[in-house]
């Protein structure tokens, strides 16, 4: 049986089914009666269509030496291309990891990337529910779910590239010395993946007249930008209505040894829309970057951590960073960093990207303390939370357990989408725009830096094909004109798994408990020294 290329792109599952029947007849074979459930059959056809549409390139073992370690998160390695092939210049590769615990079977792929309950949850996204691979599922989730919500200009879903096991084995060997030791101990490259995700390298510019202009990129993981006010938050965790999740989580990370200093960063500042508060947020991220703030120069990391959290910014780090910026930010000695941070703050405010992100984060309007009840209804398990509550406390959650299945599915789906939005990053890139660079667009705003009497004009500039947004900043000073190109992207838009709901609930309890313990300890120390305790509440 063969499906035409345009059939794969244009036909619905039903039409594909009819086409298969017709093709069988044309080939002289008897149309077969399938014993599979029709819906499952349609999903299988869709899976074939997805794979054939996306596996457009194949990388061989020898190609692995042209990819170098860029960084990693909990689930993926990121490699950057250093070869000469025009196809891959300006690209990064995301490779899935799996636990290094000896459980070889845990890395094996299942016939379907989603569980039966997840297919029910995402039933409105046909392409997603038929995914046969987690990498395919993540790509389709970014494309069909997150891109419409965040805006196509800000989301690059990437494309899948087929790779053999030998390629993955050589990658594992090549990057192991660049990875943080604790990352190596925890996970390795998943050798059972048949594909990797190829994306544009958003830390560099790949269009226009590049010349010798350096490109500087700032990656920010903003975290949750609002205080939850859900009526399902219990009295025991009511502190969540006053303190940001980020601040409370800092206490747990400090307790577990993941960080050495509590960050002063407040996500509410970054999402506030206030120029002063946004600048404060950027400055606080610079002071304690952890895994929330990184800066690249021409694709190479010059500030922040590669595979995990970064050191707190001391004098030596700050001086080295200041020197690295001199080729991009023209300012008096010692002021390059300040000007960059101001430029980033102004760009964040003017772009409006965080308004979109906040709207998606706020799809979680019941908090995990509400969503977990909907989860138990969907799975038809006994609600272990309600089992421990008094009759009076149970009344708080009656409406959740009496909701329809569709409503329960909506609650959990919105919670998981919001969880992705709370954990994603965005990247802003700047490059001097020389004469001869092509572009289009119109000025939509300007930025004035009071400290240096410099004015930046904003232009939204769409360059090349695809949903790539770039903004042009024109810097005017003393009659000279310096132009900067800027682009803004969201990254790390991974699908959050329904099976993690109980883990999310337990982590939430642990975060609150650890923060409250820290406050009690502070109060105890404070009472002994007779100094008033100052808590940073977030309003």
Automatic annotation (TrEMBL):
GO terms for cellular component: nucleus. Its cofactor is Zn(2+). It catalyses: 1D-myo-inositol 1,3,4,5,6-pentakisphosphate + ATP = 1D-myo-inositol hexakisphosphate + ADP + H(+). It is an enzyme of class 2 (transferase). Keywords: ATP-binding, Kinase, Metal-binding, Nucleotide-binding, Transferase, Zinc. GO terms for molecular function: ATP binding; inositol-1,3,4,5,6-pentakisphosphate 2-kinase activity; metal ion binding. GO terms for biological process: inositol phosphate biosynthetic process. Its EC number is 2.7.1.158. It holds the Pfam family Ins_P5_2-kin. The keyword Kinase applies. InterPro entries: Ins_P5_2-kin, IP5_2-K_N_lobe. Phosphorylates Ins(1,3,4,5,6)P5 at position 2 to form Ins(1,2,3,4,5,6)P6 (InsP6 or phytate). Phytate is a regulator of intracellular signaling, a highly abundant animal antinutrient, and a phosphate store in plant seeds. Also phosphorylates Ins(1,3,4,6)P4 and Ins(1,4,5,6)P4 to produce Ins(1,2,3,4,6)P5 and Ins(1,2,4,5,6)P5. Belongs to the IPK1 type 2 family. The EXKPK motif is conserved in inositol-pentakisphosphate 2-kinases of both family 1 and 2. This is Inositol-pentakisphosphate 2-kinase.
């Amino acid at each position: 049986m063969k499906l035409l290329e345009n059939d794969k792109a244009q036909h619905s599952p039903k039409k594909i089914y009819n086409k298969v029947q017709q093709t069988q007849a044309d080939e002289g074979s008897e149309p077969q009666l399938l014993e599979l459930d029709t819906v499952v059959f349609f999903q299988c056809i869709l899976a074939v269509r997805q794979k054939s549409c996306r596996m457009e390139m194949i990388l061989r073992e020898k190609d692995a030496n042209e990819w170098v370690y860029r960084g990693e998160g909990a689930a993926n390695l990121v490699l950057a291309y250093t070869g000469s092939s025009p196809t891959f210049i300006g690209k990064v590769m995301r490779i899935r990891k799996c636990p290094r615990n000896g459980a070889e079977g845990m890395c094996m792929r299942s016939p379907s990337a989603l569980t039966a309950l997840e297919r029910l949850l995402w039933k409105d996204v046909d392409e997603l529910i038929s995914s046969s691979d987690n990498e395919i599922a993540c790509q389709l989730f970014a494309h069909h779910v997150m891109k419409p919500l965040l805006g196509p200009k800000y989301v690059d879903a990437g494309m899948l590239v087929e790779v053999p096991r030998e390629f993955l084995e050589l990658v594992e060997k090549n990057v192991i010395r660049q990875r943080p030791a604790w990352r190596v101990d925890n996970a390795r490259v998943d050798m059972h993946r048949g594909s990797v995700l190829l994306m544009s390298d958003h830390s560099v510019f790949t269009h226009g007249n590049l010349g010798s202009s350096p490109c500087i990129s700032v990656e920010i993981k903003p975290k949750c930008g609002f205080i939850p006010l859900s009526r399902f938050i219990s009295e025991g965790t009511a502190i969540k209505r006053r303190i940001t999740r980020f601040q409370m989580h800092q206490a747990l990370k400090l307790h577990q040894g993941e960080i050495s200093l509590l960050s002063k960063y407040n996500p509410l500042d970054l999402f506030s829309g206030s120029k002063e508060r946004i600048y404060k947020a950027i400055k606080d991220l610079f002071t304690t970057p952890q895994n929330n703030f990184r800066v690249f120069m021409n694709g190479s990391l010059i500030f922040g951590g590669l595979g995990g959290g970064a050191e707190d910014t001391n004098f030596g780090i700050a001086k080295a960073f200041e020197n690295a910026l001199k080729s991009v930010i023209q300012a008096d000695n010692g002021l390059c960093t300040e000007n960059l941070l101001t430029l980033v703050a102004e760009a964040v405010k003017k772009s409006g990207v965080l308004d979109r992100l906040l709207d998606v984060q706020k799809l979680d309007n019941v908090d995990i303390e509400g969503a977990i009840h909907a989860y138990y209804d969907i799975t038809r398990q006994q609600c272990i939370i309600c089992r421990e509550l008094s009759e009076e406390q149970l009344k708080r959650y009656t409406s959740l357990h009496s909701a329809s299945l569709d409503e329960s599915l909506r609650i959990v789906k919105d919670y998981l989408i919001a969880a992705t939005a709370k954990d994603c990053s965005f990247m802003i890139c700047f490059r001097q725009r020389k004469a001869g660079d092509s572009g289009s667009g119109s000025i939509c705003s300007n930025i004035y830096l009071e400290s240096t009497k410099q004015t930046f004009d904003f232009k939204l500039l769409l360059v090349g094909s695809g949903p790539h947004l770039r903004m042009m900043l024109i810097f005017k000073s003393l009659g000279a004109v310096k132009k900067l190109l800027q682009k803004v992207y969201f990254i790390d838009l991974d699908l959050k798994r329904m099976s993690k709901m109980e883990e999310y609930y337990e982590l939430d309890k642990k975060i609150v408990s650890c923060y409250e313990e820290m406050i009690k300890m502070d109060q105890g120390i404070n009472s002994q020294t007779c100094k008033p305790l100052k808590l940073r509440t977030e309003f």
